[in-house]
């Protein structure tokens, strides 16, 4: 397993470099000009000097190489300097946002906690709800509970976040007045009352994202449980006198979790993509809203860095899924 993990990590390096090149070229070919937001009163020669200051006068391959060095070398050195107090990255040019003239990674680190609070909690809640629903639906196949779970899952698959987000705002904020419609990212939790306020403003965005997660994983869990409940080893375990609780929760559940854990791991990058829309609906000042703002402002360094971070998450969690698959199923060997 260790050899397989090291081999996959080595293979991931050229994969990520190719992905970075594709993202860079796509952004180069996309329409838009970073000088479009500059006032019309600015003379053309000044605009040209501003373009040169942003590095747009250099060839494409030079700009790509500089971004690679900045992202993979200078930014990690800056992180080491931050934690250890060293000066390895002192005086070196970092990836700078065209819109804010600040280092891109500093802005990402500022926005990341808000996204993790909403996205991370929603995924945990979604998985925690989906697994018991899938298990019980399979064990009580075609029961009223199973049919209700199927109905909720169909809604979760069918309704996009931009519609369900607006719907819960209309119901719980406008009509009932129970919850705030806008997420206050400046809110500080320093008491029980402030914690309650934080909890109230998190309920709706977490609910919207968790609905999709629950719908997907509960269906996978149900299908996997049904497949294993009809296997010969289940009938053998029951014939030996094992209780139904031991048969279902020990033998069947362990084997059923093998494909489901893979789906859970691979779904983590996808939930970040869904959060882009949800953060816009609830005005969460996180990574998703940062990406949308950067696209609107033609801030290519910011867009390129954020999309590449999403690509890194996809590659990383694919590796985690493969490793977990091998751990859960001893029959699988990666030698």
Structure characterization notes:
By secondary structure, the protein is an all-alpha fold. It has 2 domains: about 40-95, no CATH class; about 110-330, Orthogonal Bundle (MetI-like fold), CATH 1.10.3720.10. It is about 75% helix and about 0% strand. Helix 6 (about 160-175) crosses helix 7 (about 190-230). The N and C termini lie close together (about 5 Å).
Mind sketching the topology for me?
Layout: H1 2-29, H2 44-53, H3 60-84, H4 104-139, H5 144-158, H6 161-175, H7 192-229, H8 232-239, H9 244-282, H10 287-296, H11 300-328
Q: What is the subunit organization of this protein?
A: single chain
Percentage of residues in helical conformation:
over 70%
What is the count of helical runs? 11
Which architecture of the largest domain would the CATH scheme give at its second level?
Orthogonal Bundle
- Gyration radius (Cα, Å) is 24 Å
Strand content bin: under 5%
Largest sheet: none
Helix and strand content put the structural class at mainly alpha
- Could you tell me the mean pLDDT? 79
Q: State the shape.
A: globular
Q: CATH homologous superfamily of the largest domain?
A: MetI-like
What is the highest CATH level, the class of the largest domain? Mainly Alpha
Written as H for each helix and E for each strand, in order along the chain, the element string is: HHHHHHHHHHH
User: What is the CATH third-level topology name of the largest domain?
Assistant: MetI-like fold
Q: Please, how many domains?
A: 2
